[in-house]
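Lest this sound abstract, we let one protein speak, letters for residues, whole numbers for local backbone shapes, and leave readers to judge:
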Amino acid sequence: MISAAIAVLAALGAAQSAEATGTAIRLGNRITVYGSGLHVDSVTTARTPHRIHAQAFLTLRENGKWKRNLRGWTTADTTGNTDHTSWSINENFPNGSRLCTEWKDLSGRTLPGMACMIIHR
């Protein structure tokens, strides 16, 4: 009986926790949200093709409308033909809210293709 209990505990300890991680892509803009349930640990965004002095912006949208800025314009790193940046978030969000990224280039023009991830339980 004790060996059976130890086997069950070992199996439970080896199980991975469920992660609520997801990715969405729109017109070359990719957003990846890492977290569990309504808690978001971090967000990564990437865009192709590369733009000179590309910057990314992260917002929260609820009920289809802008709610608040989460991170302001952030200069991107570039690898090959892809611009990318990441933000640490460590925050809970309302069920059904959306985290969205936008990009702009050297001209200051916002590029088409806002990508959004819906936060679910």
User: Anything to note?
Assistant: The beta strands are 22-26, 29-36, 39-47, 55-62, 65-75, 77-79, 82-92, 98-104, 115-118.
